[in-house]
Amino acid sequence: MACVGSALGLRCMVRALSATGRSRRNWLVNGAMAIGTGIWTMHFIAMLGFRVTGTDVRYDVPLTVLSLAVAIIVVGIGVFAVGYSKSRVLSVLVGGLVSGVGVAAMHYIGMAAMRLSGEVSYSPVIVTLSVAIAVAAATAALWATLTIRGPASAVGASLVMGLAVSAMHYTGMAAVSVEVHPGHVVVPGATPMQFVFPLAVVLGSYLFLTSAFVALSPGPGLTKTVPPEGQQAEPPRTAPVHS
Q1: Which residues of 44-77 are buried (b: 16+ CB within 10 A; e: fewer)?
Q2: Which residue of 38, 159, 162, 173 sits 20 to 30 Å from the alpha carbon of 8, by its own alpha carbon?
Q3: Count of alpha carbons within 13 Å of 190, Cβ hemisphere only?
Q4: Using CA atoms, how far apart are residues 15 and 7, in angstroms rounded to an integer?
Q5: Which tens digits make up the pLDDT trace of 98-126?
Q6: Domain segments of the chain: what residues?
């Protein structure tokens, strides 16, 4: 899911950089939505496999939704920085920093939404490492947007970004320690199958359907110019041949 979201987001950004006006803005919005939802979906699909012996795991619904909003909005800031900045280097550095911090914020807000019968603590060193990985992944992805040429390069960039985002997630999870409280306590919140799984399915479907739409839509330079009504299209010009 991280790779699919990255591929769609990078493709939308490539389209945006070749467009102007409202079209550029719309492509950038789509790119932010794709990357943000792809990262969030990967995070919570991975969390479906998280278990703590001795306690149930639930999720606070408002905080979980907030983590999704943060992922989309902060990644969007980075995407728009690249889309409208005059300096490529500055836009990639600023956009990568903001987007990376946003990805890390999404992860740890999502972790804060977790409810269980115990105390959760984190290793500061490993948390710092996970944030650094997120910033590096976001910066590399934005740099790839400005430099990728051809389908093979685009696929490679998407795989690298997807793997880097996943590495950030599991590095963040390696920082987690849980001290379980003795005794059975009813844990508030929604179970993963009640809330997280259905939302992940919806967002995953959105990514695949949007990917199909972007793949089938005409790319830059492929649209035909239609002459105004009542005028004939100008015939193609041929260069004179000299012997």
Answers
A1: bbebeeeeeeebebbbbeebbebbbebbbebbbe
A2: 173
A3: 16
A4: 12
A5: 888 888 998 999 899 888 888 899 999 99
A6: 2-216
